[in-house]
Specification:
The protein is 0% helix and 54% strand.
């Protein structure tokens, strides 16, 4: 079974004063899963998942709460940013018995 999903986030402000705006983004994810029964109660499943299939770069979090660089101005240099990790692969096997 092949499953796909699209996660979209609109732009938002990183601060309470609405001075620093962070752009929105979209991310495409894909999952392949194969299940088979070995017995009536024994089910095996192999899966592979790719998050951020097209390796888009975007901020997962951006926050600002004050003049962190001490220049007496609140601007985009005061943001604490976490960038997404890029394309992420997950593979595994599950067994139910």
């Amino acid at each position: 079974m092949l499953t796909g999903e699209v996660d979209t986030s609109t732009s938002y402000y990183a601060d309470e004063m609405n001075l620093v705006k962070v752009g929105g983004h979209s991310q495409v994810n894909a999952l392949v899963n194969y299940d088979w029964k070995r017995t009536d109660k024994n089910v095996w499943s192999i899966f592979a998942r790719v998050d951020n299939l097209f390796d888009e770069e975007f901020y997962t979090t951006a926050r600002a709460s004050g003049d962190s660089d001490g220049n007496r101005r609140f601007d985009n240099q005061d943001i604490s940013i976490t960038v997404n990790p890029g394309m992420v692969w997950t593979v595994g096997i599950t067994v139910t018995f």
